[in-house]
Amino acid sequence: MTQPTDIRREHAARPLLLDLFCCAGGAAMGYRRAGFDVVGVDIRPRPNYPFAFIRADALEYLADLIATGEIERFALVHTSPPCQAGCALTVGTNRSKGWGGTHVDLVPPTRVLLEASGLPYVIEQPNGRAKIRKDLTLCGEQFSLGVLRHRNFELGRWSVTRPAHPKHRGRVRGWRHGEFFDGPYVAAYGNGGGKPSVPELQAAMGITWTDVREELTEAIPPAYTHWIGAQFLAQVRAGVTA
Length: 242
Fold this sequence. Notes:
Layout: H1 4-10, E1 16-20, H2 26-34, E2 37-42, E3 52-55, H3 58-68, E4 76-79, H4 88-94, H5 107-117, E5 121-126, E6 136-138, E7 151-156, E8 174-176, E9 179-181, H6 198-205, H7 213-218, H8 222-237
Parallel strand pairs: 1-2, 1-4, 2-3, 4-5
Antiparallel strand pairs: 5-7, 6-7, 8-9
Helix pairs in contact: 2-8, 3-5
């Protein structure tokens, strides 16, 4: 496993970002393009993650970084805790299967550790997630993508002006209640109901380094975190963010 000292040596030239609950690296790629070096942490093996990767429990790893002082090597922490607990999307689409009510809510303990870290941070969650402060909402239409994929972001120890949310150009393509609707966006979740192929998902989201459907449907488009990371670094350069 990569140790913090090795990470520090490898990533000395650019600000370092910690990417917790990283999955396959949709967020990571955007931050990298914005100017960060990135270290990802996930409890599952992620062979498609494009940057330095540590397999570990994200919260245990963060707690250890705080306890040892190694957290100070990082400039920003991004987190994407599992969203199933209490999520209206999960409950609504899977109520008959009993899903959505038994998952552990990892957002509160994540926030506690992020506050203890002393660093600026980001918590990302989908629409329908009630227990997050919605400091920023991003949509694929803001970046001319082929998905809508609304995502909310809680920003700790820094802030940013919300960009305008343009009107959607049409519907998400797929079947709804026995009727097929065409539209300029694909549905980046699930398998049935006229869902897109893997190549269509890759093109719509701007993700090319994984062809695993589950990883694609769990990811956020790199364009989102490219924008967030660029805003953060601009504030650092201007002396606005510590």
